[in-house]
Amino acid sequence: MDFKGQKLAEQLCLYIILAAGALAFATGWYQGSFAAMMKVYGGGVAVAMLACVPDWPYFNKQPQSWLPSQKEALASARPMQAAR
Amino acid sequence: MHNLLYRSNALFTVSTTVLGVMCLLTALTDLTHRPNVRLDASVRSVDGLQRDYGDDRAWLSIKLDLDLRDLFTWNTKQVFVYALAEWATPRNHVNQAMVWSRIVQQPRGARVKEVVRIEYPYALTDQGVNLRGREYNLTVAWETTPVVGALHKGGRQLGGLRLPDDYFRSANVPRGHWRG
C-alpha cells in the first residue's frame, strides 16, 4: 500500500462509518427499533471493513519512487571505517 | 495505515466512537418523551388485621387499573411497576412495604387491570402493634430500564387511607399466632 493509498484507506473508513452511523440512527428512530439501528450500523461497519482493511489494488495506484540505491558509495566508505 | 493490523485497529476505534455517539443521541431522545400513563389504584377491601407473634399484620385487596404502554419507546428494555404502602409509627417514622410488583417487558403486558389480594409475605407487617386505626398511603410507581442511558421513573400516591380500629379477619385470612 502506497502513501496515497494509506490516506485513502483512512478517509474511506471514516466516511463510510460516519455515513453508516447517521443512516442507522435515522432508521432506528424512524422504525422505533434499537435492534434495527444496530443491524444497519453493523452492516455499515462490515462494508467499511471490506473496503478498507485488505490491501486492495486501488490503494497501490501511485507507488512512491525512491532514489536509486548508492551501493558504490557505501562500498567505498567501508574500508575507511575499518582502517580507523 | 501501513499494515493490516493497523487498519483493523483504526476501524475498530472509529466504529466504537461513532457507536458511542449514537448511543448518546439515543439516550437524549428519551428527554423529549413525556409518557402519558394511567395509574389508578384503590383499596377494594381490608380483609384482615391480625396480631402475629407481637407484630401487627394487615391483609389488603387493591384494585389496579394501569396503562403503561406509552412508557415503551425504542430505547425501553423493560418497565418495573410496583405498589408501595407507607405508614408512620412512634417507633419508625417511615415504614415502607412493597405490596405488589411486576416486570413488564412488552407493551402488550403494560395494561394491568386486576384486583390483587395481598398475601403473606407481602401482607403489611408492622414492627410492633401499631396498625390498628393507622393512617397509610398507597403509592403506585414505575421505573423504566433503558437500552442505553438513564433510568426514568414516576408514580402516583393515594393518600389518607386508614386501617380498621380493631383486629378482625375474613375467612381467607389465617388466624394470627399470639405468643405465650
Walk me through the structure.
The complex is a heterodimer of chains A (84) and B (180). In chain A, 73% of the residues lie in helices and 0% in strands. Chain A is mainly α. Chain A has one domain (3-63). In chain A, helix 1 packs antiparallel against helix 2. Chain B has one helix spanning 4-29; strands spanning 38-52, 55-67, 76-87, 95-104, 111-117, 124-125, 135-146, 152-162, 168-169. The longest helix of chain B is centred in the first third of the chain and has 26 residues, at 4-29. The mean pLDDT of chain B is 91.
Rg of chain A, nearest Å: 24 Å
**What is the distance, rounded to the nearest whole angstrom, between the alpha carbons of the first and last residues of chain B?**
83 Å
Low-confidence region ranges of chain B: none
Number of domains of chain B: 2
Structural class of chain A: mainly alpha
Helix content of chain B: 10-25%
Average of the residue pLDDT scores of chain A:
88
Most strands sheet of chain A: none
Write a concise keyword list for the protein shown above:
heterodimer, A: 84 residues, 73% helix, B: 180 residues, mainly beta, Immunoglobulin-like, five-stranded antiparallel beta sheet, four-stranded antiparallel beta sheet, 1 helix, 47% strand
